[in-house]
Design goal:
The protein is α+β, with helices and mostly antiparallel strands. The protein contains eleven helices and five strands. Strands 2-3-1-4-5 form a five-stranded mixed sheet, with helices on both faces. It is rod-shaped. 29% of the residues are buried.
Length: 364
């Protein structure tokens, strides 16, 4: 999902750039065409009136270009239009503008290939079907520019045809290259998406226990060490080890599916400890650990006892018997290691299990 959002934002940014680019090119073309009109007029190099020339070579093409820009502008801001339609509108508008320039200035042969610049660029949107339709439009503009050249220079008809053939061959080569580039970039995009998804899956599997939704053991230890480093020499960290009483019996009697229900329910209750002041994780099997970043035994034990009571009162559909938990609690000193703190909490838990269960034992 994150990857998709990032891609959509990138496409939106590209469309915005294309919009500004088209407006800039229209402005430049308008100024140049107007200047050329007066240049040809004063050098007596036009065979028609200045007004007719300006209408044909300036007003008409620039008016069409402005329509293309307005279309692009409106579609880009219309929320009900899909991103694919917006992408297609932007690239097609730019393509038609380039085609218009190539036909209008068909006397300059290299400009015949201008629309293929857009074809190469359009591959960034990974729309392979429409990409081929745009290639067809490019071929049309090349032919139109060629025929325009024949009309303007009838005495060079043979050369014009030769130019059209050469331009057609070059167009095929450019189109093939554009399609291959689009395929390559599409594969790269899919590969990057796959890598990103796998990374997120790995991260999710590492950070969280899939069954209960609390931190995994590795993430739990990592966070504990981070908290101890932060609190080094200035505070204490409370650690509670929690175990489901007679869990093996639950699995053996009611099945592992029902055992998973119990684990999920406890994970749901433990979620309340994922706050700014504490966090919890599954240590293994039916054992869980809660870590209090700034230990306050009175407050911590009050919260843990509420958890114990809440779980004891929970009803499960597969049994009328109560399912309970035992808890061991220890306040770790800043000089202690993770294993040492956990061992003392585990010793307190062991005492709870062996002195009646469904209780909390504090280990100093």
């Amino acid at each position: 999902m994150e990857q998709t959002v990032t891609r959509r934002q990138l496409e939106s940014d590209v469309r915005s750039v294309l919009e500004h680019f088209l407006l800039a090119m229209i402005s430049v073309c308008f100024i140049l065409e107007f200047a050329m009109a007066f240049y040809f007029y004063y050098t007596d190099d036009i065979d028609t009136s200045l007004e007719r020339y300006i209408f044909k070579r300036v007003v008409l093409p620039c008016g069409l270009s402005i329509v293309l820009y307005i279309l692009m502008y409106i579609v880009n801001r219309y929320d009900k239009v899909s991103d694919d339609i917006k992408n297609r509108t932007c690239t097609t508008s730019l393509l038609m503008f380039c085609g218009e320039v190539s036909i209008l200035h068909s006397y300059f042969i290299p400009l015949w290939m201008l629309p293929f610049f857009v074809l190469m660029f359009a591959g960034i949107f990974h729309d392979s079907v429409f990409h081929k339709l745009q290639a067809g439009m490019c071929f049309f503009f090349v032919l139109a520019a060629g025929f325009s050249h024949i009309v303007d220079y009838p005495e060079e008809k043979v050369k014009s045809i030769q130019y059209i053939v050469v331009a057609g061959v070059i167009s095929i080569a450019i189109s093939y290259f554009a399609f291959q580039l689009e395929k390559f970039s599409s594969r790269e995009l899919l590969f990057n998406i796959m890598i990103n998804e796998n990374t997120k899956k790995y991260k999710a599997g590492y950070e969280f226990d899939a069954l209960t939704g609390v931190y995994s053991r590795g993430r739990l230890e990592e966070e504990f060490n981070r908290v101890f480093d932060f609190e080094h020499g200035s505070g204490k960290v409370g650690v509670a080890m929690i175990d489901i009483d007679n869990f093996k019996s639950v699995n053996d009697t009611y099945g592992h599916d029902n055992g998973d229900i119990v684990l999920r329910k406890l994970g749901e209750f433990l979620g309340r400890f994922n706050t700014m002041e504490s966090f919890c994780g599954r240590f293994g099997g039916e054992e869980f650990v809660v870590i209090f970043k700034k230990a306050d035994s009175k407050t911590d034990l009050y919260e843990l006892d509420n958890l114990r009571k809440l779980f004891e009162e929970t009803k499960f559909s597969f049994t009328d018997d109560k399912v309970t938990i035992s808890i061991g609690y220890h306040i770790g000193q800043s000089e202690e290691q993770w294993e040492d703190v956990l061992k003392k909490a585990d010793e307190a838990l062991y005492e709870s299990k062996n002195t009646g269960k469904n209780k909390i034992t504090v280990k100093e």
